[in-house]
Write a structure and sequence with these properties.
Helix content is 46%, strand content 0%. The longest helix has 27 residues. The protein starts with a helix and ends with a helix.
């Protein structure tokens, strides 16, 4: 009987130590875990009603695509608190999986890339003109991992995300 209790006690201690090590590892790991990734359930949102002006007669996405990225200006006030808050929401929905919750390129999906996604708080990214950032988010980076998101994210949301990223400042 004493032998059985000793074995059970040792097994319990080993299990508790293993659980503690795994918990400590998860809480101090800088990159996220798949079970912590925010879930986007598109089917839970009502379908948006298509605007009557959906097919533009002038302007539209083609204007952004053909514009010089350095000269491109935002139609959204990027320093407005509402735009930054909306940009943060857009970042969590579309960007956090690759760029991570610390904006350093160590997201749950991005950590599997080689090279890693860019650190959004680096001096290089923060010094880019907003039009250049818009162009890279919208149409991808040639030879890079940034996918073209113009068909996934609306133009106003892309501008708001840029406002949020610019509000973070240099690390």
């Amino acid at each position: 009987m004493l032998r059985i209790l000793s074995v059970l006690s040792i097994a319990s201690i080993v299990v508790l130590i293993a659980w503690g090590v795994i918990t400590l590892y998860d809480e101090n790991l800088q990159v996220g875990r798949m079970w912590e990734t925010p879930v986007i359930k598109a089917y839970e949102n009502p379908l948006p009603v298509m605007d009557q002006r959906t097919v533009p007669l002038d302007g539209g996405e083609l204007v952004y695509r053909l514009a010089d990225p350095v000269q491109l200006k935002s139609p959204v006030d990027l320093s407005a608190a509402e735009a930054i808050k909306a940009g943060q929401t857009g970042y969590v929905r579309y960007c956090i999986q690759c760029h991570g919750k610390y904006h350093d390129g160590n997201g749950t999906v991005g950590q599997s890339f080689a090279p890693l996604p860019g650190d959004l708080r680096s001096a290089k990214i923060q010094s880019l003109p907003v039009g250049q950032l818009f162009h890279e988010i919208s149409y991808g980076i040639p030879g890079g991992r940034q996918p073209a998101l113009a068909s996934t994210i609306g133009a106003d949301v892309r501008w708001q995300i840029i406002g949020y990223v610019k509000s973070l400042g240099v690390r």
